[in-house]
Amino acid sequence: MIYNKNLWKDYLPVQTGENYAPVEKSGILNIDKPTGLSSMDVIRIIRKIGKIKKVGHAGTLDPLATGVLPILVNKATKLSETLMSGSKEYDGTLIFGQEYDTQDITGTPIGKTSDLSPDINLEFLKNAASFYKGEIDQIPPIFSAIKKNGKPLYKYARSSQIVDIQTRKVFVDTFNIVEQINSNTFSFYISCGKGVYVRTLVHDLGIRVQCPAALASLRRLRVGKFLFENTVKLEHLKTPDDIIDRLISPEL
To answer: What's the 3-state SS for the chain?
Structure first.
């Protein structure tokens, strides 16, 4: 999947409702982010439909990922840091046999493909993944929005600049390989704290079992108190009133 920077416009209604009053109420939208959109794309959509000046989010999701993306409206934008510090849950799939520069399948392949050893079965991977529990050291991917000298890392990557990336301490509650889907694809579940890059966990697992691994799909199930089963789909938001009706009190 190649990111299309104009895809977000497809989620706008044909008529954006020039006769509607802008959303002045403050609150949080628990959005189910679709694949193919960036977190900033979702902000653009909400801002355009609701004619809102102040819109933010509580935790970036890559375009590949889907699921819980809390969108903060008006005064609720002040809660961004508080919400982002909450625990998170994910499920997804990973694939063995090929490394990518982005650590997920949206990137450019690196090196040759390799077969998964017959010794690497579900039980073996469960044991290997359990190593990533508690406080661990993680080196963020070069294709990320983390800033180095005021510049996002992905800009260094796109210009082929070499940059030293500092190791960070992050906390992982659970990294469980759930099921073998086919010969080289497995599903997983992760519960973790702030700042964990799931694609890097997958990449590091591949290094640990000596077979390159990449993130194939990802869904965020929870951010703090915000659950996937309570999310709102973007296509259900057509007017400012639709946004107002689904705003959650910022006191939660």
So the answer is: CCCCCCHHHHHCCCCCCCCCCCCCCCEEEEEEECCCCCHHHHHHHHHHHHCCCCEEECCCCCCCCEEEEEEEEHHHHHHHHHHHCCCEEEEEEEEECCEECCCECCCCEECCCCCCCCCCCHHHHHHHHCCCCEEEEECCCCCCCCEECCEEHHHHHHCCCCCCCCCEEEEEEEEEEEEECCCCEEEEEEEECCCCCHHHHHHHHHHHCCCCEEEEEEEEEEECCEEHHHCEEHHHCCCHHHHHHHCECCCC
pLDDT (tens digit, 9 = 90+) per residue, 41-75? 999 999 999 999 999 999 899 999 999 999 999 99
Domain boundaries, the chain: 7-85+224-246, 88-222
Q: Which CATH number fits domain 7-85+224-246: 2.60.120, 3.30.70, 3.30.2320, 1.25.40?
A: 3.30.70
Please enumerate in sequence order all residues whose Cβ is within 8 A of that of 63, keeping only pairs 6 or more positions apart, or say none.
1, 3, 35, 36, 37, 38, 106
Confidence band of 3 (pLDDT split at 50, 70, 90): confident
Write out pLDDT tens, residues 148-191.
Answer: 666 666 676 576 667 777 889 999 999 999 999 999 999 999 99
Q: Which residues are catalytic?
A: 62
The residue behind tokens 């509580």 is 58
